[in-house]
Design brief:
Shape: globular
Distance between the termini: 29 Å
Radius of gyration: 18 Å
Strand order of the largest sheet: 1-2
Number of helices: 6
């Protein structure tokens, strides 16, 4: 498989998944970024700065996003238990319920696609996708050229 074929397959699958997420979010008056917030907060309680980094947003943009979600009763802010000077963001019970509803709908909607693969293939795909996922600060492309070298 050529690199172009791999990139094309990644882009096409991303379009398919983003389309599903966009539709499901719109049905619940949620933007794609708001869905990402719910997804991130499902299993963690990040600091505001960590959430901004995970989303690739500046702090002022994130503050507005969290304000709107807080107003809807989906998230809350609170002092970090280990460092009282730090503010964490977390799902409220209503936010957790909505996140689970969205996840269940995404799972149902993508089931016809994922069921095309047998259990072994699904496991392989999970492993391969995990291998391509990096922390946000490492997602930047090399600035010096296409080979990843710095000079």
């Amino acid at each position: 498989m050529t690199s172009d074929a791999l990139v094309d397959a990644l882009v096409r699958s991303t379009f398919q998944v983003v389309g599903v997420l966009t539709r499901i979010g719109a049905e619940r008056d949620l933007s794609l970024t708001q869905l990402r917030v719910l997804g991130i907060l499902r299993d963690r309680r990040p600091r505001m700065t960590e959430l901004a980094a995970l989303l690739g947003l500046d702090k002022s943009t994130l503050s507005g996003l969290v304000d709107r979600a807080e107003h809807r009763g989906l998230v809350a802010r609170g002092k970090n238990p280990q460092d009282r000077r730090v503010v964490d963001v977390f799902l409220t019970p209503a936010g957790a319920e909505l996140a689970e509803q969205v996840y269940a709908e995404v799972r149902r909607t993508l089931a016809p696609v994922t069921k095309r693969l047998d259990a072994r293939e699904r496991g392989q795909l999970v492993q391969l996708l995990h291998a391509t996922i990096r922390p946000p600060d490492r997602d930047r492309l090399p600035e010096s050229g296409g080979d990843g070298s710095s000079g």
